[in-house]
């Protein structure tokens, strides 16, 4: 029975020694090794990319609607100008 406790105590000491060595190594190289990119950072990149794409789509939609409005206005002006000329009939 005492031999088992001795083996358990020895295993605990070995694990503590390994943990301390790992902590020392980490403390020494912690400032030298760049931190690994987290999955959260990748998610943030995708969110920003999506936001940028939506903003560009909204700008395109606004530009498209302005262009269509300009075409409609020009068409109405042309029709009204033709209606004022003698011998021309306005087109629907």
Q: Give the tally of β-strands.
A: 0
Overall average residue pLDDT = 79
Domain unit count: 2
Class by SSE composition: mainly alpha
Radius of gyration: 38 Å
Give the SSE layout.
Layout: H1 2-29, H2 39-84
Structural commentary:
- The chain is mainly alpha-helical and 92 residues long.
- It has 2 helices and no strands.
- The protein is rod-shaped, with a radius of gyration of 38 Å.
- The mean pLDDT is 79.
TL;DR?
By secondary structure, the chain is mainly α. The chain has helices at 2-29, 39-84.
Identify the notable features of this structure and list them briefly.
mainly alpha; rod-shaped; single chain
